[in-house]
Amino acid sequence: MTAVITTAAGIARGVRSGEYPAARVLEEYLARIAAHEDRIGAFLLVAQERARAAAEAIDARVAAGEDPGLLAGVPLAVKDALCLAGLPTTAGSKILQGWHPPYTATAVARLEEAGAVVVGKTNLDEFAMGSSNENSAYKVCRNPRGLDRVPGGSSGGSAAAVAAGFASVAIGSDTGGSIRQPASLCGVVGMKPTYGRVSRYGLIAFASSLDQIGPLAGTVEDAALVYQSMAGADPMDATSIPGDLPDVLSGVKEGREAGIAGMRVALVTELCEMEGTDPTVARVFEETVKKLEKSGAVLVEVSVPSLVHALSAYYLIAPAECSSNLARFDGVRFGLREAGDDVEAMNRATREAGFGPEVKRRIMLGTYALSSGYIDAYYGKAQRIRTLVIRDLEAAFTQADVLLSPTSPTVAFPLGARTDDPMSMYISDICTIPANLAGIPALSLPCGTDDAGLPVGLQVMAPVLSESLLFRVACAAETLIGALPPVLL
Length: 489
What we know:
This protein is an alpha/beta fold.
C-alpha cells in the first residue's frame, strides 16, 4: 500500500477485497492530520476513537465475508453544520458551543452505512454565511495550496481537508456556492445536487429553499461515489424528491470512455464576460473550453439576462430565510445562555454574545426585508427575479445540454483581504448563486492554475435531475485536463 492513499474509489476497492485493512488506511490519514492540522485549521473536531471503532467494525465485516459498502474504509470529513449524534455540532458559532445533537443527519448516516469512516467535523463560516471561512467563531482555516490564502467558504474546512489529504472525501452544504467556490479555490471537485436530491434532515439550516448537501473530493468519480451513497428520498425531509435514484456512476463511465463528442456545451455570456474577472481565470477557462471543443464538444453561447440581478435577489432571499431560521437560537433550549434580568434580556444578551458580525448583518438585513411595508418591495421582488432566473435557465437548456462558466471570478485571495468589504466578499459567489436560485445541479472541477499554482475552477451546470449528465461531462473534462493531487505538506 502506498504511504498515502488519496482516491476513495481505490481505498474502497482495496478494503473490500481485503488487500489492506480499513484501520491501516485510517491511521495514515490520522497521522497526516496530527502532523499538519495546526498549519491548516480544517477541523473543529477530530473524532479519532469514534473513527477507529468504525474502521475496526468494517474490517470485521470484511473478515466475515460481508460487503461493507460502496465507500468501505474511506475517510470522510463532515462539515460542522451537519449533526452526528453524540458529537459536538457548532455550525461554526459560539451560540451552539457545547451542544450535542441527539440525532445524525440522514446524509451522514447513509455514508456511514456505505462504509465511510468519519474522521472529524470541519471548520466553516458561522452558520454557513461567508465565502472565505474567515467568519468561523473558532479558528482560521488556511488554503493548503497557499497558506496565506483563504480556502473559500462556507465549506472551507471540508475543501481544505480534501486538498491537504486529511480526508479522502468530504461533505458540505451549498446555499449560494458554499461547496463549489471553496472547491475551486482549493483545487478539488465540489458538487451541488438538484434541490431535494439529498436529504437536508440534520443540516442546521441557513436558507431552507436554497440549502443543499453535496460532496467534495479529489476526483469526479469519488464525488459521484459519495453522491450515489447519500442521495435519495427521505421521509424525514418533506422537500426530498421521491422516486428511484439513477446510477450516476454509469455517467462517470460514459464520460471516461465515450467523452462528450457531439454534446452541446454552452458558455453563459453573463458569467463568462463579467467585469472584475481575474485575467488568469479568464485565460485558463478559455484554454479549457478549447480543449473541450477539440475533443468534439459543440460550443454555443447563450444569454441568461436575469443573471445580472441574481446576486441582488439572493442577498434578499437568503437573509430573509436566515432571519427566520436563526430565531430559534435564543438561549432557551440549547447552546449558549447569557444571564439576563428577564427572558427578553437573556435572549438579547445570548444573541449578542453568540452571533458573529456577519450573521448579525444578515439577520438584520433579512428581518428588514420581511418587515411590514417592505416585504413586497424587497423579498417579493427578489422572488419574482428568482422565477425569471429559473425560466431563463430552462430556456438556455433548450439550446445546450450543459452550461459552462468559471466557478469563481478569482483564484484564492489573501487572508484578510476582503473582511472589511462585505460586497467584494459577496461577489465571490456571483457565478455559483444562479444554480441555487434555480435548484439545478452544478459541479466545480479544477481546470488549471495561475502562475503561483493557485487553482482555477470550471463550473458545469445541468438541468434539474440531470446528475448523470453532469458527472459524465465533468468526468470527460477531468480526463482531458487531469485532476490536481492533494498537497503533500
